[in-house]
From TrEMBL:
Domain of life, per lineage: Eukaryota
PANTHER family linked to this entry: AMIDASE, OS04G0183300 PROTEIN
Species of origin: Artemisia annua (Sweet wormwood)
Keyword annotations of the record: Signal
Protein name: Amidase family protein
Amino acid sequence: MKMITTGFLLAALFQSIVAIQSSEFMIREATIDEIRTAFNQNKLTSKGLVEFYIKEIEKLNPIYKAVIEVNPDAILQAEKADQERKANSPKSSFGIHGIPVLLKDNIATKDKLNTTAGSYALLKSVVPRDAGVVKKLRESGAIILGKASLSEWAHFRSSSAPSGWNARTKQAVNPYVATMDPCGSSTGSAISVAANMVTVSLGTETDGSILSPSSANSIVGIKPTVGLTSRSGVIPITPRQDTVGPMCRTVTDAVYLLNAIVGFDKFDEVATKKGSKYIPKDGYLKHLRPGGLKGKRLGLMRTYPSFGFNNDTETLNNFEKHFSILRQSGAILIENLEITNINYIYSLFNGEDIAMSAEFKIALNAYLKDLVASPLRSLADVIAFNNKYAKLEKIKEYPQDIFLAAEMTNGIGVLEKEALKNLTKASKYGFEKLMRENKLDALVTPYSDGSSVLAIGGYPGINVPAGYDKYGGPYGITFGGLKGSEPTLIEIAYGFEQATKFRKPPPVKE
């Protein structure tokens, strides 16, 4: 009898271990649709999902440095979501209800979390309200799991600091190849999603900071048309280019998240009023349809890295198979495109840094002055803080050259106006003319090489995993379009994703 009991207990223990492992395996890489199905079948709760991710963060974050803070109220939010679902609350029907989201640490939350852009300078500052996108997430029933790490000050403090470094968490690490650049400033948002420390995340982009880390960490990133999503409560670089967008493992998940955060916000009134006109009446999910590539006109340029493939043999060879897949899926590739006066157009991009430098000082000073509590109220205060406390806090001292250049500006003067005029010309006679003359639905670029073109004009882009190099390093492909073309870009990106399914999770860390 004793032997039977012992054997029974061992068998039960083994089955329990298998069940736990099976549960964890199902959660890892699980999509929003799969999670929602598990909710409805009572196989998973939001609380269980959050607890799983917190354990993964505890295990993996010491390696990857992708998360700055975990929300101490995340489990309470999850329990509330479970109760709402049990009561069939109207909110529980929303696509991201009960789904954990990590926010880049420049997106404000009016809760127990800090909003610091990775800097000690803003630690314990008090924001006046949730960021516009956070308000929409809460209204949709999403769970704010915490804050993702980033390149400090969204990579706008120092030109020599590496991507993914900030004072609070130090250097973020690519989960696929530790020596590979995690890229851009939304590094933690990308890494945490790639490594299954959260279901979905939000990043921000001024120039490449969603598209670039998405490419380097094998996830889907949507850089929306400027104004489609609110920037209120986001520590700014320039309102002219700043945008907030989804960073997820699949196009479908990214579209669920995009649906939740788009729309008008009175605290970002001018931009979101313009952006709202682009939102489809029934949202974006209907554009996730098979055959989305059929008949789409996709442009390819073989010159200039800001626009195309730059005649790089290795890059071209890597992407030739992708071009074949696009054609086989019904897309029409318009190749070897040329832009008239390309050298002149390309020279106009030099105005981006001039314009952003002045715009940053104006926008950051306004953000800091709006804080409920903060010892720092200007860019000058932040520079002084860094000079005074770097050694005290044992912060690695990267030069503040970008900050210092911005502090030397004095509003939008003659030089800045000329730069802004040149950027408008570059967009009008470069990208827009190319798209319209060739009747293109999207411009296709490798990795995130088209980010500057999309950035200066406020255009949207979607990056989709496209494979891995010989060292296992991920790379993506970007589809960029004219303002408001998100529905078309979603059809293209979804079509490519479904035809290829290149994405695979990073090596598991035990």
